Amino acid sequence: MLNIRLWVARLVMMGALLGASGLTIAAEAPCKSAVDRGNAASAGDCQAAKEKRFEGRGGKCVEDEHFMRRNHMNLILHQRDETMHKGIRTSKYSLKGCLECHTATRADGSYIPINDPGQFCESCHHFASVKIDCFECHATTPAVSPASKP
Amino acid sequence: MSNESTDQGRRGFLGTATATAVGLAAIPGLSLVALARSPDLAVDNRSRWGLLIDTSKCLTECTACTTACASENGLVSHGRPATDAQWLRKVQLKDKATGRTLSLPVGCQHCEKPPCVDVCPTGASFRRADGIVLVDKHICIGCRYCMMACPYKARSFVHEETHNQKANAPRGKGTVEACTLCVPRLDAGRLPACVEACQQEGHQAMIFGDLQDPNSAIAKRLAAVPTHQLREALNLNTGVRYQGV
Amino acid sequence: MTVVTLLYALLFYAATAILTIGVVRRVVIYARSPAPLRIVTMPAPLTYTGVVLRMVREVVFFESLFKSTKWTWLFGWLFHMCLALVLMRHIRYFQEPVWLGVQIIQPLGKYAAFGMIAGLLALAVRRVCVERVRYITAPSDRAMLLLLLAIAISGASMTFLMHTDIVAVKSFFLGLMYFEWRPLPADPLLLLHLTLVATLMIIFPLSKLLHVPGVFFSPTRNQVDDAREKRHVAAWARDPA
Fold first, then answer.
1. Model pLDDT for residues B197-224, shown as the tens digit of each residue
2. Which CATH topology does B31-243 take?
3. Which of A46, B170, C17, C93 is most buried by a 10 A CB count?
4. Partner B contacted by A80 (CB < 8 A)
């Protein structure tokens, strides 16, 4: 009696593991929104999700994606101290600089606030459940008039 | 008190100087502040920014400076003067004995020994190396101790949620704010909005410049005419001086 | 599909299977084990509601430990509460959209890592420096503490020192759950953390960590003190009817 039960259990386990490996090796399924909602860029070939979110103008960020995905918060947090206390306003890491490329525009050319749902910052931050409060104070669209630009 | 002819002569000179200055300022890129610092460099204490207000040229009914300040920094009026944010205000003074009335703009005095910096529990209120006293809103917890400490009531608390902030002036609910001498413009080599507005109106009541540079207009004027700080007895060595108070 | 992704996908499927099946098996064993006598520790509740409350106090405040040794209670409780916060915060990697409760503990979860590490270090020091405890300490006790410490330190390092791409990590785990596999970023600290966690999951059903389900079956805690009112007869001692 005991033997059969033991062997059934072992077969089930083996079957589960083999099945998992087999499915893993098989081709990837098309995107589902739950997996890729905030993650268009790392979805690889998931074109539909990628097109849904506006990535940015200019084709290239100030640092490469691998670095930015991990460390953009360090740049922002460090740079703000440099700017406030020492007056260093290098545009490479300034928040205003980020906005200039990463805000999407509507059909009529006006900017969409960057912290709106589905926009650049919010989509990944909502996915990772990390609240950001930059835009409680900072402007959410780039300064339009050239006179205001530093 | 100077007599009529000296006044006329001085006004005439100032009038010409104004016209030249306004003409120069109209050229794009040129500013009346010393060469704009490269944005990669930190500020240092070789300069100290200051403001001189000539109260004899300041008109009671004129609000060019306060309007410019509000529009440059996105200050919104909620119709509640007691709690609306106010970075610069016009103060009307009257000498009871002689009946002389005076009008002057008062905002943050950018003291050398600011009481607001002393009392701030988090270090958010700080004095930059070049003399500008600022609030670091990232650190400010909104306790308002600095508002209590300021002898000039320069600071305001933001009671309402802010929307559509100007890119140059981040403001948020729950923090304290005050005149920044338009620091983003300053770092780019331009004048504060109030000074520029006063010049555009033609009043020339506000002079801005480097107090430590002996060749600047403000230093020369300070060396030439009697000027006072507000509440001088407090020995705060303010960066904002008034002529004719 | 990289080797790393495949390897970790298999590892986590296996670890989850072993954890679930192992713990369920143990719980069934505990449920079936007879409790022949009323051995509930005094002072004991007189009603079943009282038992429920006592169990809640035991699990939330570690009441009996508090009554015995305060120092052990302090560090043990600190570790467990911080572990609870950290685990709750980790739920964000397995849900989309994330529960509101998990969203709002964001600031707590970050710093609970330090509480965890402090508690674990103190417990480890206790097992080395307190003579009577050292005498009864077995290698598995030390190994368990070190494993948890390594997990906490590697996790905290990722939050505070060397960040990793958490959006991709979440995609990976959601992918495992929905069977649409996404690549795992091959950051060394992340891989270390995940390996250690998988190890923990695999040895969980074989280790003293079974005190997690076990405490609910402990007869000194979950019995009602009604030995005088009801005659307690074990199932195997009943007269065959």
1. 999 998 889 999 999 999 999 999 999 9
2. Alpha-Beta Plaits (3.30.70)
3. B170
4. yes
